[in-house]
Amino acid sequence: MNCVSCEAAMPSGARFCPSCGAPAPSAAAPAARKLVTVLFCDLVGSTELAEGLDPETLRGATLRYFTAMRAQIDRHGGTVEKFIGDAVMAVFGVPVMHEDDAQRAASAALGMLEALAELNSRLEPTLGVRLRVRIGVNTGPAVAGSDYSAGQALVSGDTVNVAARLEQNAAPGEILVGALTRAALGTAMEVESAGPLRLKGKQEPVEAYRLLGFARDRDALAEPETRETLPFVGRETELAHLRSDLDEVRGGLGPRAVTVLGEAGIGKSRLLRAWLEQAGRPLAVGLGRCRSYGEQGSLAPLADALRRVLEGPGAAAAHGLEALAVLEAGLLKDGTPGASPEATRAAVGEVLHAVSREAPVVLAFEDCQWASDPLLDLLDQGLPSVLRGAAVLTVCLARHDLFDRRPGWSGGHRLLVVPALTRADCGTLLDLLADRGVEPRRDRAALLEAAGGNPFHLEQLLAAAQEADDETQLPPNLQALLGARIDALAGEEREALDLAAILGREFEVEYLAALAGEPGTAADSGAVLPALTRLGRRRLVELADPGPRRNDSFRFSSGLVHEATYQAMAKRTRAQRHERAARVLATYPEAEWTAAVGGHLEQAYRYRAELGVTEDADEVLRADAARALAAAGARALLRCDLAWAADLLERALKLFAEGEPGRDATARQLGEARIALGRPEEGWALLRPVLTSADRLQATHAELVLAATGPQAAVDAAATAARAALPVFEAANDGLGLARARIRIAQEQQLLGQHAQAGNLLLEALADAARAAVEPERALALGAVGMSLWRGPEPVGPALARCQALLAEHGGPRPAARLTLSCPTAVLLALDDRFEAARATLTKAQALAASLGFAEGEIVLPMFAAAVEGAAHEPERALELLDQARAAARRLGAGGQVGLIDREAARLLLDAGRVEQAAELIGLPDGSPDGGDRLLRSDAVDLDGLHARLAAAAGDADTARALAGRAVRAAASTDSPVLAAVAATDEAEVLARLGERAKAEASIARARACYEAKGHRPGIRSVDRFHARLEDFEDFTFTADAAEPRPARGARR
């Protein structure tokens, strides 16, 4: 056991720390972070008062003052923190929070002024003195620790300081409240602005308000005006049930009673108001509200409801009744049952019978979970016994807590449970608010998820998202509401909930039991299940789907409950529990816990750093957290979980010290993740320092990645870097590096048109990647294999079969592998005239790319789609897709892809006769047959063929013939029938334009033979179409941007 103050080790059974003297944890409740309301009340002019009174007389008056003030604090559920001279400091929310602590404090402050006035009425005639006070009230977060044996609350934080400064700035007899207090009061109290105040110790002015008193009475059924009213949506089922109950009462079927049950904020009161608005008239309606604090008669809510009934339709029928006189002498006078509860109950029945004969009566009671026992007895059993035959509908609105007090609650009440709003209804609420100009700044889906179908939660989250930049903090009203539920828990339940909050929104019972148990002991799930069951009944947790190991799992009933529980723990407590959780989870063998272990260690370290704790053990904590997060991030990267990898690696990098082992590897991996996510500049910036790393393996990886993806990336440069890197990777037996290097060398071979040779290298790379379980390289190798099956000598049919076999072997649960191999597979399907299947395959690939966060997919997917549309003879659609790919390449810094995209687009434009547009993309030939030498063979063949066509169109016969011939010769040195067919087709067009028809037909024949060998059906059709139009090329001229090539005037058709 460690001291909660200095964290020194303490002997077993010690009541106080031998180092600092602080109470042992068992003797002092742990500190907690709470939303509290602090009240300061101070006597004005106490020095002058002391001068004019005998010390003993002064002491007596002061004690009477303190007694009166304390009585008001106690009455409203506050706790006296301390008496400081003539000042009283009280805290509302300690030791137990209430959702209405701000209202309690404000009501107590008003009560203190009334009590002081009464005290002065006795002091002034006898002593000739009149006491005056000023009061400050402020709401906000604070750290609270409690010494219950002393009956005092120990609270600290800026909230306390501001409350004290507000009191000092108040005038005698005045109450000043802070902004959060004012917001929490809503319209329950009347306030006016006291203007921004310059308070001592505060850099910025503080908004303050003058508390004037309780709000005037208004229609209890009116919509609360604490905020702009949310539109009422949904609840058709619940409205129908209430309408049915009222119809039965109106139909003479006797009294009915219904209990409307639901969590706080779910919309019970709004449902009641909406139903009453639709109920029609005449209807005598009475509403009573049960209060959670203060002194009122035990039947006061019933008295309030009866008063309203007696002001409505049918009230005249009760005038003159002896029963009414009985009620006026007791219940309606002070809210108590009087000397005879039986006579009061009978009188209530008689009055309601009389009124209901004239108009049906609805008695509605809000917050029945706070009702007094006598009122619950009356509603549950007493009223039904005296209302037989009366047209009275009793509606009790309550939270589930009612059944904690009254498990057998019935009294003939039908239960109507108000569930969470559907996500669609919550979306409608947001839409309606958007129509009013209330737009959420945070993500809509996240807002709906956090609200959990609770309209009040949604409203508060929306308001907070508009007003504050920090979305990690719960809105104050939600903190109060949820904090009160959490604070009401018994010890075992609170401990279980707190520990569960450390584990996360969802947690396995076994891990919770291990965390709750003594270190070194086996987890006993049975020890925590009873507490979880009780928490489930309180709707704080619920069963979840079994965890990864198929164990029993629970989750918090909402993210807000989880957040409120977590925020209520002091940072020191969080740090201790996070470290303990990390050590517990680390004892389990599951690899997926690495990220959780690192996350817990990270949180423990950061909280200790925030608290200013600096010890040698914290350095160990930091280093352990960095290593665990780095390992988890590396594993996520290897399985292509890019966003998660980047998050983990970034957190790890922040924890690593400069020069610490593992830092360079983490920086390199984070750089790779950033590049893959479409943030290349950030990735390059992380990779460049690794080039000089003392770790040669990491430096070599960085060199290869920059050569392949950097701002000067080129396939031949990457292949050169890969050849240099191979010995380093081989010496380290680095499967990742070997796979990468072989892929880059193979990609160069592909552009040289040597697909068979490339295929052999890629199969080696695939084996390396599979051995090292590196999914990005497995996916890259598979995609490259698919490219060679598309462009290489393998016929379309067998190539498709190979792709499908590779998918079966390597796809399965690997989305990245399915993505990269699906793209060339789609093109092969198009070459087999299966265009719809090709498009469907690319649609699935697009979904995979989006789920992986694979930024390069924005470039390559439109390029593959353009190839499919080109094969389907849809050139305009293909051009649109290439435009998309070009824009993405420029945005993502992939300039090397732009040349390929431009050549593909230029070919489509030339095929459509749009010569000038094609020339704008790839430029005109420069008149010498060496312009393509700067490119690798496949690219050079493509560019030479296109330039030859442009030269022929421009009448430059020598250049056109030379370029076309060079392209054909270069293509012949490759094993790509597709490349050879394209070169032969380009040559045929050039020869046709030059009037060499026989040679053109020979070129067409070679192109057709290549396409036939490949099984390339669209290619065969394209050369056949070209051959049918061959005569049109005699004496041919082009019209720029024409949709089709047009023969010259007089040419034969």
TrEMBL record:
Record bears the keyword Cell membrane: no
Source species, domain of life: Bacteria
The UniProt record lists the keyword DNA damage: no
GO terms of molecular function: adenylate cyclase activity; ATP binding
Pfam families: AAA_16, Guanylate_cyc
Gene Ontology cellular component list: cytoplasm
BP terms from Gene Ontology: cyclic nucleotide biosynthetic process; intracellular signal transduction
InterPro entries to which the protein is assigned, alphabetical: A/G_cyclase, AAA_16, Nucleotide_cyclase, P-loop_NTPase
Guanylate cyclase domain residues: 37-167
Keywords (A to Z) from UniProt: ATP-binding, Nucleotide-binding
Descriptive protein name: AAA family ATPase
